[in-house]
Specification:
The chain is an alpha/beta fold. The chain is built from 8 helices and 7 strands. It has one domain: Glycerol-3-phosphate (1)-acyltransferase, CATH 3.40.1130. The longest helix is centred in the N-terminal third of the chain and has 30 residues. It starts with a helix and ends with a helix.
Amino acid sequence: MSRFISYIFLLFIVVTCAILFVPAVIIWLVTMPFDKRKIILHQYTCFWGAFYTWVAPFWKVRVLDRHKFKRDKVYVVVSNHQSQLDILVAFNLFRHFKWVSKAEIFNVPFVGWNMYLNRYVRLVRGDKQSIEEMMRVSEERLKEGSSVYLFPEGTRSPDDKIRSFKPGAFIIAHKLNLPILPIAIAGTNKALPKYSMNVDGVHKIYFQILDEIPYEKFAHLSVEDTAEMVRGVIIDAAEKLKSKG
């Protein structure tokens, strides 16, 4: 039964993505002359992504401390990464940012095309030239006034353990003297495990925005020490979220 429900929900996503892409194109065309950062289109994309977490009866999402993501500030946003569901959950923020996402997603019909329209940042994992380009484009987006959201683990964790953080996000934060905004996610690993599209039971999902870390608090640290410090903050918060059940 759970597999059947999963197939039905996946079909629902495919059909609605085709429908919801049409307004995205219209918004992109209408706002092109005055909204270079695609703020309006991203807000619509937040609705599009969050919509699936709202209608799914098997996912109970709670966003905690949303106010800590201030609308008037630019952040390097980082979080742990447990599941593809993390992305849909993050759209519940309704804050302006640019995703850094693997290049394959940009090729997915409707979803990937919308990512191009939003000027999100592409990355081919393990490709040195692509990593350099990702860093350059991320810096460009940040200088324009858009926060950038990265998963520094680089890929989804197969369990709920938070793996070591890659340095990219922290190199950027040091170079541009920007604050880091850590986010802790819990529950998505069980709600939608890696390499699976099956839904089984009702799952509580927590998405908590933590206190921003001003540049002054890590300016004296190396990139590696900064990454480890932020990882520790997210691990502590994620453990507390898991205890909520």
